[in-house]
């Protein structure tokens, strides 16, 4: 009898999860469709369908919809999916709820390296930009690890988060210093904050294969990440190759983060927040956390992009400002909750 109840309970939770995933996916699709209507150019209802079935190059509305707003919506969704997935993998492999691309130095390192590359070669191609972003992300993460090893407590989750915040602030200061010193134009200043303004299909076609490869690797590793999240000893006892899992997850994280930074700049805190929301509904199984993180991350960045175009009349605010305004208080909340839990454990 108890076995039947347990089975029914599992089936019920599984059904609830798939319903939730479907709802979030539908909401993401609807958000992307709504984003096509946001902008200074007025588009009439009949022009939406005509822009994709009877495209007229002489029509401003058709051009804006097909060549500006649609690639922007797609790219915003891809960037959010990449960052959310990389954050979920980092938190699962390191067992650190404070881990994320913007916290662990990956975003800041990739941005700085890419900016230096653009200063050396202003006509840098997108493929080279992704390579520089990957290299910078690696440098940023290795710097965080080095700083953490120098601390008294060693490589603890709190130490990682603190070192990541320091390294990210340092790399960010250097990035903004170079931007000011070389009197870079407004578009570059906008890009260093993070956003998807002035994008085209070229950026989408560059990020799409990178995103797909990273997502496939993440999904393939999700069962192993679930076991590894239970602890190193448990995973090793079950026969898992923990080193191989970590290397594969690191490859996916760097690929996803580097690709997102190369086309959108440092969009902060998406990789920190979204996995937490996904775990609230999906539990501890990363076979469910990662797909839900993909949908939630895409939806969040699309909503933030819509807000960036809508809240200030006549002007556009960088997407990264909105995600940072939401994510910074969330990071403080997580840090305080983790500190309170640690103090409670020590008191007992």
Automatic annotation (TrEMBL):
<dbReference type="InterPro" id="IPR000522">
    <property type="entry name" value="ABC_transptr_permease_BtuC"/>
</dbReference>
<feature type="transmembrane region" description="Helical">
    <location>
        <begin position="17"/>
        <end position="36"/>
    </location>
</feature>
<keyword id="KW-0472">Membrane</keyword>
<feature type="transmembrane region" description="Helical">
    <location>
        <begin position="102"/>
        <end position="120"/>
    </location>
</feature>
<dbReference type="GO" id="GO:0033214">
    <property type="term" value="P:siderophore-iron import into cell"/>
</dbReference>
<dbReference type="GO" id="GO:0005886">
    <property type="term" value="C:plasma membrane"/>
</dbReference>
<feature type="transmembrane region" description="Helical">
    <location>
        <begin position="204"/>
        <end position="230"/>
    </location>
</feature>
<keyword id="KW-0812">Transmembrane</keyword>
<dbReference type="GO" id="GO:0022857">
    <property type="term" value="F:transmembrane transporter activity"/>
</dbReference>
<feature type="transmembrane region" description="Helical">
    <location>
        <begin position="251"/>
        <end position="277"/>
    </location>
</feature>
<feature type="transmembrane region" description="Helical">
    <location>
        <begin position="73"/>
        <end position="90"/>
    </location>
</feature>
<protein>
    <submittedName>
        <fullName>Putative siderophore transport system permease protein YfiZ</fullName>
    </submittedName>
</protein>
<feature type="transmembrane region" description="Helical">
    <location>
        <begin position="126"/>
        <end position="150"/>
    </location>
</feature>
<keyword id="KW-0813">Transport</keyword>
<keyword id="KW-1133">Transmembrane helix</keyword>
<dbReference type="Pfam" id="PF01032">
    <property type="entry name" value="FecCD"/>
</dbReference>
<feature type="transmembrane region" description="Helical">
    <location>
        <begin position="162"/>
        <end position="184"/>
    </location>
</feature>
<keyword id="KW-1003">Cell membrane</keyword>
<comment type="similarity">
    <text>Belongs to the binding-protein-dependent transport system permease family. FecCD subfamily.</text>
</comment>
<dbReference type="InterPro" id="IPR037294">
    <property type="entry name" value="ABC_BtuC-like"/>
</dbReference>
<feature type="transmembrane region" description="Helical">
    <location>
        <begin position="319"/>
        <end position="335"/>
    </location>
</feature>
């Amino acid at each position: 009898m108890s076995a039947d109840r347990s089975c029914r309970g599992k089936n019920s939770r599984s059904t609830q999860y798939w319903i939730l995933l479907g709802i979030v996916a539908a909401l993401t699709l609807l958000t992307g469709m709504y984003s096509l209507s946001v902008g200074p150019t007025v588009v009439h209802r009949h022009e939406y369908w005509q822009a994709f079935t009877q495209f007229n190059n002489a029509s401003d509305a058709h051009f804006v919809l097909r060549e500006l707003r649609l690639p922007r919506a797609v790219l915003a969704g891809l960037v959010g999916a990449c960052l959310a997935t990389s954050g979920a993998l980092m938190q699962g492999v390191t067992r650190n709820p404070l881990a994320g691309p913007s916290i662990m130095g990956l975003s800041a390192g990739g941005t700085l390296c890419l900016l230096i590359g653009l200063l050396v070669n202003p006509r840098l191609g997108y493929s080279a930009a992704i390579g520089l972003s990957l290299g910078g992300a690696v440098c940023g993460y290795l710097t965080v690890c080095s700083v953490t090893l120098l601390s008294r407590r060693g490589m603890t989750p709190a130490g990682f988060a603190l070192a990541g915040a320091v390294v990210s602030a340092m790399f960010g200061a250097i990035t903004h210093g170079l931007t000011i010193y070389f009197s870079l134009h407004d578009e570059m200043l906008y890009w260093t904050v993070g956003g998807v303004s002035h994008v085209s299909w070229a950026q989408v076609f560059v990020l799409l294969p990178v995103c797909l490869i990273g997502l496939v690797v993440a999904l393939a590793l999700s069962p192993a990440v679930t076991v590894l999240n239970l602890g190193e000893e448990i995973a090793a006892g079950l026969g898992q190759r923990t080193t191989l899992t970590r290397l594969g997850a690191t490859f996916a994280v760097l690929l996803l983060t580097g690709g997102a930074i190369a086309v959108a700049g440092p969009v902060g805190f998406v990789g920190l927040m979204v996995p937490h929301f996904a775990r609230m509904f999906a539990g501890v199984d990363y076979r469910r956390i990662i797909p839900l993180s993909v949908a939630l991350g895409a939806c969040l960045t699309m909503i933030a992009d819509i807000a960036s175009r809508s809240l200030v009349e006549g002007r556009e605010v960088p997407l990264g400002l909105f995600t940072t305004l939401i994510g910074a208080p969330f990071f403080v909340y997580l840090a305080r909750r983790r500190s309170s839990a640690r103090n409670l454990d020590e008191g007992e």
